[in-house]
Amino acid sequence: MQQYEIVIVLTPLLSEETAKEGIAKFSKILTDGGAEIVQEDNWGLRKLAYPIQKKTTGYYHLTEFKAPGDLINKLEIELRRDERVLRFLTIALDKHAIAYNDKKRSGAFNKKPKTTEEASN
User: Fold this and answer.
1) What does R_g of the chain's alpha carbons equal in angstroms?
2) What is the 3-class SS of 32-100, one letter each residue?
3) Exposed/middle/buried for 50, CB within 10 Å: 0-12, 13-18, 19+?
4) What is the mean pLDDT for each group of 10 consecutive residues in the chain (121 residues)?
5) What is the pLDDT of residue 104?
6) How far apart are CA 11 and CA 110, in angstroms?
């Protein structure tokens, strides 16, 4: 199975609960199709780089998962049919991207450098 990452941008007119229901629907499509969800990250309401359908903000959600290739087409068809979705982007991850995401999840990039006082103690 190939590892993928998908970012979904939902319309900002939704309530927080409705946005979560929409994301749950797409997660269910993945798990029912035999995918294994590695990580989900809800970025919340953010400003768009440019207006889409006269909207300047959107709910962003990132999902990293392992799935067979034919499942991606089914998922993207459902995303196109759903009127709550403004945009989405699915990316197949290579070995370097997978390693980077593993390091990011383990917190390797969020560590503060030690000062000279902390290092001597």
Assistant:
1) 17
2) HCCCEEEEEEEEEEEEEEEEECCEEEEEEEEEEEEECHHHHHHHHHHHHHCCCEEEEEEEECCHHHHHH
3) exposed
4) 94 90 93 93 93 93 93 94 94 93 83 63 57
5) 87
6) 31
